[in-house]
Write a structure and sequence with these properties.
single chain; mainly beta; Jelly Rolls; four-stranded antiparallel sheet; 34% strand
C-alpha cells in the first residue's frame, strides 16, 4: 500500500505570510528563519553595524516578517519597549543577545555612551 499524506491542517489567522513548511507540512515558526537582514525597515534604513549610535537612543523599525533580533554592542546597551526606556533590558557589553520580535513594530536601543559600535541582525521568515 502506498503512503498517502494526511490533508493539510487548517491554521488560524496567525500566519506571517508564506511560512516555510517542514516535511510534515507544518509551518516552521519562531526560531527558524529563512534568512537574515542587517537593516531595519525604514525608508532610509539603519544598517548594521551602527557606529557611534547616539547616547540618547535610537529606534529600529522591525521588518514585516522578522521573528527575532540579535544584538551585540561594544558598550552596554538598553533595549526598551518604547522611547522612554522605562521598561526593558540592559545588555552587557560584548554580549550576543537575541530577542523575539514577531509582534513588535519598533525596538528602542540606548547605548551607555556615545562611543560605540552596535551590531544587529533580524531573522526573517
Amino acid at each position: 500500500m502506498a503512503y498517502t499524506p494526511t490533508p493539510l491542517r487548517q491554521k488560524g489567522t496567525q500566519s506571517f505570510g508564506s511560512l516555510v513548511q517542514d516535511q510534515n507540512r507544518v509551518e516552521m515558526t519562531g526560531t527558524t528563519g529563512n534568512t537574515v537582514v542587517s537593516q531595519d525597515a525604514t525608508a532610509t534604513p539603519v544598517t548594521s553595524p551602527v557606529t557611534n549610535m547616539s547616547a540618547s537612543g535610537a529606534a529600529l523599525t522591525v521588518p514585516t516578517n522578522a521573528v527575532q533580533l540579535t544584538i551585540n554592542s561594544t558598550v552596554s546597551i538598553q533595549i526598551g519597549e518604547d522611547s522612554s526606556y522605562a521598561q526593558g533590558l540592559l545588555i552587557p557589553a560584548n554580549t550576543l543577545w537575541t530577542i523575539d520580535c514577531a509582534r513588535m513594530t519598533s525596538v528602542y536601543l540606548k547605548p551607555s555612551n556615545g562611543t560605540n559600535t552596535v551590531y544587529f541582525q533580524f531573522k526573517v521568515v
